[in-house]
Design a protein that fits this description.
- The structure is a single chain.
- This protein has 119 residues and is an all-alpha fold.
- It has one domain.
- It is built from 6 helices and no strands.
- Helix 3 crosses helix 6 and helix 4 packs across helix 6.
- The chain is globular and about 35 Å long.
- The protein starts with 6 loop residues before the first helix and ends with a helix.
Amino acid sequence: MVGQENYEKAFERLRKSRFRSRFHLSDSDRSYIAEKGMETIRRHCEDFVRTRLAPANPPNDGRQTPMRGHPVFVAQHACACCCRGCLAKWWKVPRGVEIPAARQQGIVDFLMAWIALDL
């Protein structure tokens, strides 16, 4: 992923993508965040990244992240962190190997930064 100092450059690159730039938090996503709080959303994000992205060969890769239903899902699509294919294409995360914990945390931090920005 990108370091925090490079988030703005990464967000600008994502905004140039017609597909990625169409994702925004819905009113129900915003309500959910307000109800649960950002720490709970972060825990959900950590769980989604750990179970759906980090394994070397995640089940249903390419289809494991719904387009809506949770603020993190929206962020994953907006940030090209929705499947191993997108992670490889956009962020050079190699396919077929488990994502190390430190890199998982970087992905979570980036997704949470996008959520905060879109709020």
